[in-house]
Amino acid sequence: MSEGTHIEGLWAVIPAGGSGTRLWPLSRRASPKFLHDLTGSGRSLLRMTWDRLSPLVEDRFLVVTGAAHEDAVRSQLPMLRRDDVVAEPSPRDSMPAIGLAAAILERRDPEAILGSFAADHVITDVAAFHAVVAEAAAAARTGELVTIGIEPTHAATGFGYIKQGSGLDIEGAPHAHRVLEFVEKPDPESARRYVESGEYRWNAGMFVAGATTLLELLAEHHPDLVDNLRIIASDPRRMQDLWPSLRKIAIDHAVAEPAAAAGRVAVVPASIGWDDIGDFASLATILGRGKARSLEVITGVDDIVAVDSTGIVAADSGRAVAIVGLDDIVVIDTADALLVTTKERAQDVKRVVDELTGRGLTELT
Questions:
Q1: 132 and which of 60, 158, 270, 315 could share a cystine (Cβ 3.0–4.6 Å)?
Q2: Minimum mean pLDDT among 19-23, 197-201, 204-208, 334-338: which range?
Q3: Which CATH number, 3.40.50.11190, 3.40.470.10, 3.90.550.10, 1.10.3720.10, labels domain 10-275?
Q4: What is the model's pLDDT at position 289?
């Protein structure tokens, strides 16, 4: 760990949930994308997340995951203590998960600064990421709810946006700005205007705040949720009976949007090589950075024969996969499912999962 990287009082919260339906059939409910090595690094996305956060927080981690994935998380992160992993009985979206982490940390350390970072994102410039988190923590110590706003590289319609206001005079956070509003995923023309204006950042869902500050902001609109989260934090035996009654809501809607409207959210702009691997097209871009058009292989290189073809392919079935004369193809071959599409239609893979679910074929999802 490099000297000066550690951030005193910062706790890393890693929400490890979701099923990554746009990465089916590699990612499934029983084995979501954060448990997989999708980048060829030899590490899962979850382990990569731990690796880049540990210099900042040392052993101050809290991973919130589904009960079905608890054993896999512990297996991939054996360095975590027993009470560093919290298992949700059922998915309730991001606010209950992060809110419970805040309630637990509030009891452990009343001065705790919580940094929430998803388990399934890719960040290539780790040094820049560390610098941005340090600024965010400094701003959070002044009572701000802080988000990290990714510098947009193109007019993406798959991300929400953050409108950036004037700069804030915060010691240790020279690049922090006021957030004017959070904007839902836009249409292509609106996305183009946002990027051209220079006033907007992508919303990557990364938040830094005092644990108590976050709960106080949440209590302004959802006091019952905060009460129940604090009860669970004080007596984990109450998880089973209280958790199903918690409102299913995202942190953006529960806290970030109303707090921004009240002028209580700051953003630290970041250029850190970020991607959320939302589909196979974005994964192909990550794997192919700096290369000419090519065929990117996720797994099964010895089983793949490609002739004059580009795109992305994975072979996990044990049989040979041959691709001839196709551009921007996506081929994912597993033991029980085969996906063939194009990078252009990668976002629509989720519709396959919806169709299979509708047919009752949940064992494939």
A1: 270
A2: 19-23
A3: 3.90.550.10
A4: 76
Tell me how far apart the alpha carbons of residues 315 and 189 are, in angstroms, rounded to a whole number: 38
Q: Look at residue 1 and tell me whether its pLDDT is greater than 50.
A: no
The beta strand positions in 117-272, using DSSP E, are 122-123, 145-150, 160-167, 177-183, 200-210, 265-270
**DSSP calls for 148-160:** EEEPPSS--SSSE
The span from the CA of 76 to the CA of 305, in Å, is: 32
Question: Are residues 139 and 53 in contact, defined by beta-carbon separation less than 8 angstroms?
Answer: no
CA–CA dist 277, 184 (Å, integer): 19
Q: What whole-number distance in Å separates Cα of residue 87 and Cα of residue 126?
A: 28
Tell how strand 274-275 and strand 304-307 pair up. unpaired
pLDDT at 81 over 80: yes
CA dihedral 101, 105, 110, 115 (to 10 degrees): -70
**pLDDT tens column, 284-324:** 988 887 565 689 999 899 999 999 999 999 999 999 999 99
Token pair for 43 = 């590490």
Give backbone dihedrals phi and psi of 6, rounded to 5 degrees, phi first: -60, 135
Q: CA 365, CA 357: separation in Å to the nearest integer?
A: 7
How far apart CA 147 and CA 200 sit, in angstroms, is 13
Residues of the chain with CATH 3.90.550.10: 10-275
Residue pair 72/32 in contact (Cβ under 8 Å)? The answer is no
Q: Report pLDDT digits (tens) over 101-137.
A: 999 999 999 999 999 999 999 999 999 999 999 999 9
For residue 53, give the nearest of 133, 108, 124 by alpha carbon.
133
Helix (H) or strand (E) holding 241: helix 239-242
Rounded CA separation 15/33 (Å): 13
Describe the crossing of helices 211-219 and 94-108 by its angle, rounded to 10 degrees: 130
pTM for the predicted model, two decimal places:
0.92
CA gap 215, 85 in Å, rounded: 20
Whole-angstrom Cα Rg for the chain: 21
